[in-house]
TrEMBL record:
The gene is gshA. Its EC number is 6.3.2.2. It comes from the Bacteria. InterPro entries: Gln_synth/guanido_kin_cat_dom, Glu_cys_ligase, Glut_cys_ligase. Pathway: Sulfur metabolism; glutathione biosynthesis; glutathione from L-cysteine and L-glutamate: step 1/2. This is Glutamate--cysteine ligase. Pfam families: Glu_cys_ligase. It is an enzyme of class 6 (ligase). It comes from Buchnera aphidicola subsp. Uroleucon sonchi. Residues 13-381 form the Glutamate--cysteine ligase domain. GO terms for biological process: glutathione biosynthetic process.
Amino acid sequence: MITDISKKISWLYNNPKILKGIYRGIERETLRIKKNGDFSKTKHPYFLGSSLTHKWITTDFSENLLEFITPATNNIDKLLSFLTDIHCFAASKIRHERMWPFSIPYSYKKKTNIQIAQYGSSNLGKMKSVYRTGLKYRYGDLINTISGIHYNFSFPILFWEYWKKQEEIDKNIDYISQGYLHVIRNYYRFGWIIPYLFGSSPAIPSFFLKNIKKKYPFKKNKENIFYLPWATSLRLSEIGYTNTNIIDLNIMFNDFNEYIESLQKSLITPSEKFINIGLKDKENNFKQLNCNILQSENELYTQIRPKRNTQNDESPILALKNRGIEYIEIRSLDINPFSSIGINKDQILVLDLFLIWCALIDSPKINKTDFMFINKNWEKIIFKGRKPNQNMYIYQENQKKTFIEISEIILTDLKKIALILDINSDDMQYQTVCDKIKSLFINPELTYSAKFLNLLIEKGIKKIGLNLSQKYYNEFININKFNRNKKIFEKETKYSHAKQKQIEQSDTLNFEEYIKNR
């Protein structure tokens, strides 16, 4: 049930300063490809720096899966400018390759050899590679090359101080961590609105489907790309997104200590399925870090996660346990194929509004039954969210409303929040974006997924992909002439290689001892 937040809107209107200082960061994944669209077979380019230690340019699952990371900032334009500069710098160093503009690797071939990302000879570097080897054995290598955008968001401390008083939170508990869990629960309840608006993966190649083709009413184009006519983000579905079953792990985001305990339990509890894989191969090489339900915290694949920056060699869960939640990571964004950097300002503005809204409405605790219905709501939007003239019901605690009814309530509230944010920034950008997304609810054909699917059917995925990757490459090369951060990136590249060598020389334990001590 969506609660009336009129009083809280008035409270915000009278205290607009508490929303000044929102910090944001972006992580963008993209596959390096050859000019013909095939996967790149080269190692992570040396002139992009060390993937182990570079602040802003690394790799994710494979050697050709780049990941660009921005520093956190409270200025959206600077955030997007820095992300653009990273792309421009990278493009200038991989002149014979391009960056794939979609989340799904449609250009994969059976003979493609996906190389697990390598991070050097240090124990830390080996651990990162073995973790990815474990992902390959557990879920398959191809599925781990699916790319996305991660949006990191933190409220100002002043906001939480005012929020605590409004929500009458016990002063003796970590009210900031409880506040972020409040937001996370509501993101699960209503976050399906994000793939509806911005999902960009309504189609998927046949080699992802295996035995699942008959489960859904797929159509296909001449390239053997399967699609669902009204789908939004198959990347987030059981087909494309390797999602740990958090219901079975009993992770409900209701209480901070319970969340930590349940996550810790999954890190030390053996899984029969993963025991069958084995810890090592015949040559005594590690096949995975361990045989537990999760090898590490990073294997908890969810639409949104609580996060904390680590210090020194600290583990993510220890950072959370010791100092609480610092920000949230939204992981349900597909690569935006209509943006050269995979995301645009409108998306950021909408996410800001929506996350603030999630903090304002009531957020009852979620049990396993609730979560089952929540997952079904996401599936409805993922598989048939754009179906015209439908009367699709979205279930909320012991009641149901149609998708349109709930969307209208959310949009009405977002407009009110937009007015307050625009007072802070002295412009109309948040209100303007509300008007834009309103048209997407009226006409689903204006959504990214609909536009993408129309192009796929009309022109074919390979032609679109190659044309966009070349177009964006040309833009990056031209912009790079004026790249203000070029010298900073060059300096960080050299420093990252030196830092990797320093880490490798400082190891005192053998790898097996290092793993046991983690």
